[in-house]
């Protein structure tokens, strides 16, 4: 089974659009981009397009590379206090010299639609349905659940332990009743662990590092990592070989990427009190 993130993301965005229309309310996301990193410019453009599709008003703040920490903090403070703004997103990475952790701390948890703040990560840990779940793991979980795959009682392995992807992914699977193991760069004999997984989630960023011999027959394989080979996007998983063994697998591109964007829209609509 191919876990088609593009199709599910489209459906989620259509549902959100209907919710907003039915409410008659204006929903607004502020997106801040500092500098002109080409990948970040594309991500911000995609997010603005998603907002248009869903019917969310987007406020774009394109700040120069020379922006100071204080200027950035003042803008965040202004947006925190603007009741017409439901969500605030600062596109990372920030240019050198700017403190990303301080930015995450500055955004009000009620407007932290990326789900990066301590409050929201703590909310995931405590299985609190009021919190904003980090968009990438939230999207990956949604993709598994929407396909009718049972998670409860299964052995799940997450490769990657970042605060925004690997760790919240592991917590979400744990909250669903999976028995979860988290692997990382220090894990010894990675293959012996991944081979145990009924559900294998890879969030590393090393092209095709998960080969067929590392995957159990009939596993569900979720590929979050993004790398490029000859400027073509590829994932952590050797898709052609692994898809022969897997019961279900995400394409990459076309799997977790579109779901991440859809979940940002979901969190923004939730921040507006419509979900
Ligand atoms: P980080 O670089 O923060 O984390 C990468 C993780 O991979 C770390 O925990 C690291 O371990 C682990 N790792 C590195 N090398 C190995 C290895 N050889 N074996 C096992 N684990 C290893 O990245 P993110 O978590 O932010 O993102 C992960 C990937 O997902 C990236 O490719 C990113 O581009 C992609 N991504 C995709 C999204 C999507 O929408 N599909 C959205 C967000 C991210 P350690 O902690 O020990 O260093």
Task: Provide structural commentary.
- This protein is α/β, with parallel strands linked by helices.
- The protein folds into two domains: 24-111, Leucine Dehydrogenase, chain A, domain 1 (Rossmann fold); 135-256, NAD(P)-binding Rossmann-like Domain (Rossmann fold, 3-Layer(aba) Sandwich), CATH 3.40.50.720.
- Helices cover 41% and strands 16% of the residues.
- The protein has ten helices and ten strands.
- It has helices at residues 5-23, 38-54, 69-80, 100-106, 118-125, 135-146, 166-175, 190-194, 239-245, 256-271, and strands at residues 28-34, 57-63, 87-90, 155-159, 179-183, 199-202, 220-223, 227-229, 232-234, 248-249.
- The strands form three sheets. Strands 5-4-6-7-10 form a five-stranded parallel sheet, with helices on both faces. A three-stranded parallel sheet has the order 2-1-3, sandwiched between helices.
- A hairpin with a 2-residue loop joins strand 8 and strand 9 (232-234).
- The model has no long low-confidence stretch (mean pLDDT 98).
- The structure holds NADPH dihydro-nicotinamide-adenine-dinucleotide phosphate.
- The site of NADPH dihydro-nicotinamide-adenine-dinucleotide phosphate (NDP) has 24 residues, from helix 10.
- What's the structural domain tally? 2
Structural class: alpha/beta
Sum up the overall morphology in one term.
globular
Helix fraction bin: 40-55%
CA(first)-CA(last) distance: 30 Å
Query: What is the N-to-C order of secondary-structure elements (H for helix, E for strand)?
Result: HEHEHEHHHEHEHEEEEHEH
Number of helices: 10
Number of strands: 10
**Which spans have pLDDT < 50 for at least 5 consecutive residues?**
none
Radius of gyration of CA atoms, rounded to a whole number: 19 Å
* Ligand catalogue: NADPH dihydro-nicotinamide-adenine-dinucleotide phosphate
**Spatial ordering of strands, largest sheet:** 5-4-6-7-10
Strand content: 15-25%
Q: CATH superfamily assignment of the largest domain? A: NAD(P)-binding Rossmann-like Domain
Can you summarize the main beta sheet?
Answer: 5 strands, parallel
Query: Kindly state the mean pLDDT as a whole number?
Result: 98
What is the CATH topology of the largest domain? Rossmann fold
CATH class of the largest domain: Alpha Beta
